[in-house]
């Protein structure tokens, strides 16, 4: 990789600023000052700016416990974006794999890897999303079969894909769906005459929300979690 590109991918510097830093003689490769932007950086080359080692930021995979009153847009709008809760370099390279509504809490996956997030969001990939749901009206056991068979949502063609409903008590349940239609969980309960009062995402595929992560906190996924998708 060219040295100016390496600097851009390791820091917040633009290509023109990287060239300026190079010209000033602040950049060393394996201890030798290099001013040539086209210098080829090898995989083992130690690149430093003002004596501080820099490294290319690779693909990033993150989980966050989304608080209420935040949105999964990449920019702040009426509500704050979950990305602006993160103090992290190159936030503009990150996006959210599977959005939650402003009033929904829980597991949000954030990444720079578009192919990886496609495996989460594409209905064809059958990646289950499990929600803890509180509803207004008592839940009937018959709903387990209704959701397993699929329900008709307003303004949608065809039934929802089979979903797994696990009733906990009269007004609490866990629902696992493998699609991500707009407001899907709320609309599924609305389709059967009920109303969602609280919604929290607990899991995406095999990735479970970390119990210790407080609302608004985040951590990098483990290699095992990344590979599980
Ligand atoms: N379904 C919803 O209705 N809302 C969410 O935030 C996620 C799934």
Automatic annotation (TrEMBL):
Entry EC no(s): 5.4.99.19
Superkingdom, taxonomy of origin: Bacteria
Enzyme superclass (EC): isomerase
Keyword vocabulary terms for this entry: Isomerase, RNA-binding
Catalyzed chemical reaction(s): uridine(516) in 16S rRNA = pseudouridine(516) in 16S rRNA
Gene3D superfamilies in alphabetical order: Alpha-L RNA-binding motif, Pseudouridine synthase I, catalytic domain, N-terminal subdomain, RNA-binding S4 domain
Name of the protein described by the UniProt record: Ribosomal small subunit pseudouridine synthase A
